[in-house]
Amino acid sequence: MSELAAQPVSRLGDRALALAEELGEFALLALATLRSLARPRFPWRAVLVEFEALAVRSAPIVIVTSMFTGMVLALQTAYSLTRFGAKPYVGSIVGLAIVRELGPVLAALMVGGRAGAGIASELGAMQVTEQVDAIRAMGADPVQKLVLPRVLATTLGLPLLTVFSIVVGILGGMVVAEAQYGIASGFYLQTVTNVVRVGDFASGVAKTFVFGWGIGMVGCHVGLATAGGTVGVGRATTRAVVIASIFVLVADFFLTKLLLLLPTDALVGAFVRLFGGT
């Protein structure tokens, strides 16, 4: 009985140790990626290629998802508010919901599903066919050559996709509000601009830098840890999508708590300085 009782505890301990080891490897890869930023021969061309592959080509699915999410949100919101005679507030609710949460999170989940899977499968295939070892044998750094361009592409591309997601989501809600409930588009947009502030927009977009970094790092980490041939590549792809999605949802909670504690003026100032404002 004692041996049988000890087996679950032993398995739990093994899983905890494996999780700790994987977190350590992830942290070491993230540190190596950060260090590769300062090395000579920065891979600008590779960054542009990955930006086009991971960010630009993800735009259609992000736009379609955001448009129908805004339409459904406006439909449900207007239906519920009509009961209380508050139908004119549809634009305010839809605008805040999309700008602060739905736009950033949905864009991150779509990019995580598409780009995260693509990164994991590509690097996983290179790993099992020993192409990564060949890069090391030629004296090149796999982190700078393979990981850095992909991480930068997702980190810088996701905020831009989020802006498109926010705009399309609000416009989708406007179409439904006018066609289904007779709310004039001008009034709808006016309620959005009256309620949604620059701080709300900055808060939503600021989170996506972390989301994009996490998606790229998870995809690269899982891909480089792939083993077991083509079966392992398939498992790595699925695992990367699951981990990236969980990362986005967990990080969203903590980042939202943190950003709510920051003064709005400081957040807006940092956002303006980041994008070259005065």
Structure report:
The protein has 278 residues and is mainly α. The protein has one domain. Helix content is 86%, strand content 0%. The chain has ten helices and no strands. The chain has helices at residues 2-36, 44-54, 59-82, 90-128, 131-137, 142-181, 185-195, 198-224, 229-261, 264-274. Helix 4 (90-128) runs antiparallel to helix 6, helix 4 (90-128) packs antiparallel against helix 9 (229-261) and helix 8 runs antiparallel to helix 9.
Radius of gyration: 22 Å
What is the succession of H and E elements? HHHHHHHHHH
Approximately how much helix is present in the residues?
over 70%
Residues in β-strands, percent: under 5%
Number of strand elements: 0
Low-pLDDT runs of 5+ residues are none
Observed structural traits:
single chain; 278 residues
Summarize the structure.
The protein contains 10 helices and no strands. With 278 residues, it is mostly helical.
Please specify the SSE layout and strand pairing.
Layout: H1 2-36, H2 44-54, H3 59-82, H4 90-128, H5 131-137, H6 142-181, H7 185-195, H8 198-224, H9 229-261, H10 264-274
